[in-house]
Amino acid sequence: MAILESISGPRDVKDLSMEDRVRLAEEIRRRIVEVVSSTGGHLASSLGVVELTIALLSVYDLPRDKLIWDVGHQSYPYKLLTGRADRFDSIRQTGGLSGFPRRDESEYDVFGTGHSSTAISAALGFARARDLRGERYKVLAVVGDGAMTGGMALEGLNNLGNSGTDMTVVLNDNEMSISRNVGAISRYLNRILTDPTYNRFRNEVWNLMGKIPSLGERMRKAAHMVGTGLKGTLVAPGTLFDEFGVRYIGPVPGHDLPLLTGVLHRVGRLHGQFLVHVVTRKGKGYPPAESDATGYHGVSAEPPCDRERETFTSVFSGEMLKLAESDPEVCAITAAMPDGTGLSAFASEYPDRFFDVGIAEQHALTFACGLAFGGMKPVAAIYSTFMQRAVDQLIHDAALQDAPVVLSMDRAGVVGADGPTHHGVFDMSLFAAVPRLRICAPRNGEMLRLLLRKAVGFENGPTLLRYPKGKVPSVDVAAPSEVEPGKGQLLREGEDVLVVAVGTMCEAALQAAEDLDREGISVAVYDPVWIKPLPTEEIVRLSASRSAMVSVEEGSLEGGVGQRLSSVVRGKMRILAIPDDFQPHGSRAGLLRSIDLDAEGVRETIKGLHDEKS
Ligand SMILES: Cc1ncc(C[n+]2csc(CCOP(=O)(O)OP(=O)(O)O)c2C)c(N)n1
Predict the structure, then answer these.
(1) pTM of the predicted model, to two decimals?
(2) For the domain that residue 600 is a member of, what is the CATH number?
(3) pLDDT in tens, 261-294
(4) Ligand 1: distance of its center to the CA of 471 in Å?
């Protein structure tokens, strides 16, 4: 670790010889693999940008120049080289470094990311602010080929092209999103890579390098070649971006540090809008990740035995196969997450009815509405946090027109190590305000199966299912024979206090009720099943005959189920929900504990209420 240990910031990287920078790249890879093996995290994407990060830090003057990483999951090498190496083993742990760039973590993180396709827009904002204030610094956005499938990236490019400002987009093309990248832009980029002009350029550069032994000399020659190439071969194939008004440069081999540094050095001196197409390999330098970039995109820190238990995702996956088998109209949509959402099995069994639309949640939703009105039964599986992207599509295209679409929202609740950009905590509050929408929250696997089946059967209006990350709780109260909208289920009788527990919080509430029984407090537990329409009348009736009520939900307090109930329930009531602030990263169980969303939290709250009474 000799070189990495000597790096306290970008200046130290600049001072290294090219030979040492190449060695540094290997050290960074070893360090990332070592740490991520124990903490979990985004491995393959970070390994793919090691040389790119070193080259960018060597050429640009950070943090004076502004560098924005799209999504930000590939920023581990950047964190290691920008003064955070000593805390790197705390990444994604409670109180430790975030797995994404954060403005409050480092002056080098000028813009926080986590959701895809935002970097060009943010960078353009910096560039325009700089121009207006008469300041002088360079602005860069590093964007993956997957992120380029997101509409916002194209909106940003469209705006950049006629801006007349100085800014560079580095397109990090590894031909992968989480799974293999899809769509016309991906095909287009691939065509560039197989274009003979590009191959001629590469061959010429590599021939030249073969003849020159010294790395310093190689770099000089490469830079010179790029300089002349800017006027000729190097820019030849990039017509799409040129049409956007953004000058295309590339493709540049992304693991050839001298060459890459040379190109970026040259581009850094130019004025105007540029897109540098850098070709990298996801997982580079770590054979398991190179051969399975999807599997190693995000690595889990969980022991393998725990991964075998049934999860909400696996239940959804299995039930979708059954639905598709019995009904040829059932289709599945993902926005670039076939594995994460559990739709990979559907994709291989029913490829004609499976649609990966790219990182395009807004499009996914409106596309689903079209499918529905065209006579199909679409189920779009989108994580709660990414559904935030498609709020207007849900209102304007789905609900307003009564489109019979099903939205299956995995990761609804606290997600854990990915932190505040990824917690799915706003959906109930955001969507409860949308007329005609149905929202339900299965408490276990059996309820998920029933509710999904029910949702697919509706002929009018959208239905949203929300369930969190992780194992299905073992709530052994049998499901009701029917799961009609607006109808909940009393899971447990009890005379003193009523607990209304949403989704997986039923497990915590039942556990608390058992514990309190031994202390002489009799607790009833009610699962509303439906967040909208909420079985308000029944809850009012059940609460009226008890001395107090507690509601518990894994969602925001503001506008959540508890607040909605508090406007109709008379008598003493406490709400357990996610406080009105962004939740940090950490373990899911630890985070839930810290905000009382577990059996202990429910138990203590009920006891508090009960003690007040007596
Ligand atoms: C709006 C949004 N949808 C989905 C995701 C989940 N996601 C994280 S990384 C990723 C793939 C990104 O691919 P690319 O930009 O090519 O980066 P790479 O990982 O290949 O370096 C996806 C779909 C996200 N971060 N944001």
Answers:
(1) 0.93
(2) 3.40.50.920
(3) 999 999 999 999 999 999 999 999 999 999 999 9
(4) 24
